[in-house]
From TrEMBL, chains A, B:
Record-given protein name: Sugar phosphate isomerase/epimerase
Pfam families linked: AP_endonuc_2 (PF01261)
Alphabetically ordered keywords of this record: Isomerase
Molecular function GO terms recorded: isomerase activity
Length: 281, 281
């Protein structure tokens, strides 16, 4: 297991953590100033921007992109909507390639509007991912399936466990030729008693590692995540397993916190982020 | 699969659904008036009461107890607290026996206060259950392990999936001599893509079947459950699997709804309950 304490070059900041206050340039500069090794930006921050300028700025700061967030949902009531989602995700892969992103992060979608058919949701997601895989290989950016917490199954992600994500990898990319992989987010997966066995199974399928903490009590199903150390997740123990499986990438902090951290200013959030990753991850 | 439509004798009302407004006698009478086949009372409603009187009243109304709710948490920082929990649960088994309850419902507890050690929580629960099994057999009331939704893992239940519950059954009661089993609650388990395979595996370990619905959006992690039909769970499809596995017991409605149903009066809640089980379960 790596010693990451005091080594911000091994950290990445998911820009959602900062509450979308500042443009990407200011985020990159603030992160670079602290020696942070990477960011994970969101597509909304890149829309209409000169992506090559952003890529150049990152390169000049010796920073990488641990992942581009995130996919348009694959589940939808009509075929036309699902085709559009795949098209948007194909274009996002191009953007990810321009940024030399380490992976393209997938939040796959919940039940197609109005439906109770979970199996159909699974089918739609796998169909969409399968359609994207050749383009992912062509542009050199692997797709990372991110299992989200089961409490998001209805409206955000019918993909809810690492076992499920790895089963889908085996099904859609049996020989690994497409480099289809997974994102391991401690917030979504910490509760799973079979996490350790699935992390062993995952091996080099692990493309990203996200940290934050589960607060007690949690007051919102989406935007009440805690900074590492403020909750109950044994983050370091999970990182040990992730690295034992072969992961060597950045430790990415991703926090949604409408009522706490998003109300702080960016400098403070970044200072605390670096300190908390160093001490608790 | 049974046709339960319009057959309230096959329904049970978990008294939590009614918001703890009336004493058990009034609940039993109101349920009996509607031809409801059973209730699942809570220990708090029986404390200091003459349980045999309650049992007699139920018998006179031709009603049964689909389960007694629920265990004192098994997880705690000190051995003394854990011993006390087992003692309390032993006494609760006696109460369950007086009521001829179909099972004693287990909500097992989350992380022991202040700890991040999920494996230790699992160990503590299994240790406590193992200590109770002989008494469960002696009084003739089987213990039902209820996996709760993963969003409760920190503070209510480190037991989060049917697979985990069945693994624990196999470990603690390999030959079924203690009749250790599980409670299948659609609210807690609907998201699990492996639910169907685990229900097949469960067979006659299924001791209880609970219904309610997952609302979108869900605004509280505990007390924002919906009436069947108001959410996204395909309850009937799950019941088909539960009954294919061999379950023949009552369909129990259990809703926690601080901001909606608990504000209604008992008669209305019961009328809607019967209608919704009939139409949507």
């Amino acid at each position: 297991m790596r010693d990451i304490s005091g080594k911000p070059a091994l950290y990445s900041i998911n820009t959602a953590t900062l509450g979308y206050q500042a443009p990407l340039e200011a985020i990159i500069d603030d992160c670079a100033q602290r020696g942070i090794g990477g960011i994970a930006p969101w597509r909304r921050e890149l829309d209409g921007r000169n992506v090559q300028d952003i890529a150049r700025r990152l390169k000049n700061c010796h920073m990488s992109v641990s992942g581009l967030c995130r996919s348009t949902y694959y589940t939808a009531p009509t075929l036309a909507e699902r085709r559009q989602a795949v098209d948007e995700n194909r274009r996002a892969l191009d953007t990810a390639a321009e940024l030399s992103a380490n992976c393209y992060m997938q939040v796959v979608g919940g039940l197609p509007g109005g439906s109770k058919n979970l199996a159909e949701a699974h089918r739609q997601v796998k169909e969409g991912i399968a359609q994207l895989l050749p383009h992912s290989r062509d542009v050199g950016v692997p797709i990372a399936l991110e299992p989200l917490h089961p409490m998001t199954a209805a409206d955000r992600s019918c993909l809810c466990s690492l076992r499920q994500a790895l089963d889908w990898c085996d099904e859609l990319d049996p020989d690994g030729g497409f480099r289809l992989g997974v994102a391991v987010d401690v917030y979504h997966l910490w509760w799973d008693p079979y996490l350790a066995e699935q992390l062993k199974r995952a091996g080099n399928r692990i493309l990203a590692f996200h940290v934050s903490d589960w607060l007690v009590p949690t007051t919102d199903l989406v935007s009440d995540r805690g900074m590492p150390g403020d909750g109950v997740i044994d983050i370091r123990a999970i990182r040990a397993q992730v690295e034992a499986a072969g992961f060597k990438g950045l430790v990415e902090l991703e926090i949604f916190s409408a009522n706490n951290w998003w109300k702080q200013n960016q400098s403070l959030i970044l200072d605390v982020s670096v300190e908390r990753i160093s001490e608790h991850c």
